[in-house]
Amino acid sequence: MNIIYIYADDLGRGMLSCYGQTHFQTPNIDRLAAEGTRFSNAYGCAVCAPARASLLTGYHDCHAGAWSYTAAGIYRELSTGGRNYDEIRELINNTSFNERSDEVFLPHIARQAGLVTGQIGKLEWGFATTPERLAKHGWDYHYGYYDHARCHGFYPPFLFENGEMVEIPGNEHADCGVGYHNETPEKRQEFHSRGGMEVYSQDLFNEKIEAFIRDHKDEPFFLYHPSQLPHGPIATPEVHPGVRDAEGLTLYEKEYASMILRLDDTVGLIYDTLEELGILDDTVIIFSADNGHESSYYMEEGRCSGTGRTLDGRSIDHIDLNYTSEASGDVFDGNDGMSGCKRFTLEGGVRIPFIVRGPGNPTPGAVNEHLLANYDTMATMADLLDVPYPEWKDGLSFLPTLRGGEQAEPDYVVFAGNVGPALVTPDGWKVRYLTPVRRFQLFYLPDDCQETNNLATQKPEKLKEMATLLLKACDGNMYHGTWENHKSVRVDELLAGHGPEEAFPGHRRWQG
C-alpha cells in the first residue's frame, strides 16, 4: 500500500468547490472527495509551523514547551554573504524539538511498515530545517525549501535535494521573488518589472513528485507534499484558464484563485500518474491544510480589507469583533461562512478541508461529521499500516470511520492561537480562553458557527466543565496555548477573573 499526503498552505476550506466555492471549480480535489470521504469537522492549528510539527509528531500544540524553532530567513544568508551552509546547519541543529529519546515521527510509522519515505515541497519543521533533521525525522528522500521565509517567494534561486544545494537558473532574487500585499497599479508594475523570476517552484515540485512516484511504483511508499500554495503574497506565472473568464472577480483575485488551481493541477498530476501506473487503487491519498483562511493576500482598496480591519475601518481584535467574510469584503467567503481566519482559534482559523480517498471506502462521496484533528494522522497511519502506535501521543485513529465502522469520538480537539487556546467537543461545545483580556468565551457551534453568542454567563456549569478540560489539555497553564509560558493556575481562579497580574507574574500582553 502507498500513502500520499498533500498539505495545502493557508487554504480555507471555502476556497474549494467541493466545500462550496462558487467562483471557480477545483475539479481534481473534487474528484478525490467524490471518490473518497470529505470531513466536515476536521481541525488543524491556527498557524503554519505548529501545524506541521503537530502533524509530524502526533501532539497537539498546547503542551508545555514541546517545540522550539530557529528564526526564519537564515538561509537568505547563502545569497547575501552571511553564514555559510555548514554554519547554518550547525545553528539550526542546536535548536531542536525537546524530544524523548525514543521519539517517533510520522515517517517512522511508514518506515516500520516497509514504505520508502519522501518529502517534496515546503519544509516540514518549524521555520528552518537541515538535512540532518530531515533524516532524523525519517525521510529517505527530500527536495525543496529549508527555510520558511523563503517559502513566501515562488522563484527560488536554489533548493535542496537530499542536503545538496541545487541552483535554479533564471531565478535571481535572494528573497525568492516575494510578491506584494494590497493591490495597487504601482506595486503591480514594480513587481512584474523585476525580472529574474523564470522558474515557478510548484513546477519543480511537480517534476519531482512525478519522478518519485514512477521511481517507486514497484514498492510501497509514503510521499508527503507540503505545498506553498496558496500562501501569499500572490505570485503566479499567469491567470489559470479555470478562472480566466470568471465573472465578478478582479485580476488580483483571479491570480489568487490561480494559485489554488495550480495546486489542484498537482492533485490531478498525482491522480493521473497513479492511474497510468496501475497503482491508484493501491494508494491512499489525503488532501488537507495546515490552518484556516487568510484573505489579506488579496487586499484591494474598497473591496477586500483583509483580516485586520472591516471595510468600514473598524479594527478586528478576534475577541469582541470577529473577522467575517461579509465585514471584510471577502468575495470568496474562504472561511465557508464561519468567523475567524489564520492565527486565531475561531472556526475559520482552524477548521480545515480534509479529504481521504483510498481502497476499502464503502461510501464514496460521503460527507463525514466525525471530529478529527491534524494530530490524529499518525495514529490513523499506524492503524492503516498495522504498526505500533506510541501510547504517549495525543492522536486517535479514525480508520474505523473511513471504513464505515463504529468508533468512539475523541473527548475533544484542542489548539493554540494568537489570543489563547480553544477546545471543541464532539457535541459541538467550544471554549476559548482569551489571554489579552483574561476571560472565557463559550459557544454552541451547531447553532452558532460564527461564534457571536457567548454563553459563558448563561451556562456556568458547562463553562467550568469545558474550562477544566482546556486547562488540563494545556498542561495546567492556559498560556501554553499561546506563544507565552507562565506558571499554573486553577480553573476556579481563572473563572473568577484573576488575570496575569495576579495569577501569571511577568505576563506580557500579546501585541501581534
CATH superfamily of the largest domain: Alkaline Phosphatase, subunit A
Order of strands across the biggest sheet?
Answer: 7-6-5-4-8-1-9-10-2-11
CATH hierarchy: architecture of the largest domain: 3-Layer(aba) Sandwich
Helix content: 25-40%
Strand content: 5-15%
Query: So what's the overall shape?
Result: globular
Radius of gyration: 22 Å
Number of helices: 16
Output the keywords.
Alkaline Phosphatase, subunit A; 16 helices; single chain; 16 strands; four-stranded antiparallel beta sheet; 512 residues; Arylsulfatase, C-terminal domain; 27% helix; 14% strand; disordered C terminus; alpha/beta; 2 domains; globular
Can you tell me about this structure?
- With 512 residues, the protein is of the alpha/beta class.
- 27% of the residues lie in helices and 14% in strands.
- It is built from 16 helices and 16 strands.
- Helix 8 (201-215) packs parallel to helix 9.
- Residues 498-512 have low confidence and may be disordered.
Short description:
27% of the residues lie in helices and 14% in strands.
Please write out the topology:
Blueprint: E1 2-8, H1 27-35, E2 37-39, E3 42-43, H2 48-57, H3 77-80, H4 85-93, H5 106-112, E4 116-121, H6 131-137, E5 141-144, E6 158-161, E7 164-167, H7 185-192, H8 201-215, E8 221-226, H9 251-277, E9 283-289, H10 325-328, H11 347-350, E10 354-357, E11 366-368, E12 372-373, H12 377-385, H13 399-402, E13 413-415, E14 422-424, E15 429-434, E16 439-444, H14 460-473, H15 491-495, H16 500-503
Parallel strand pairs: 1-8, 1-9, 2-11, 3-12, 4-5, 4-8
Antiparallel strand pairs: 2-10, 5-6, 6-7, 9-10, 13-14, 14-15, 15-16
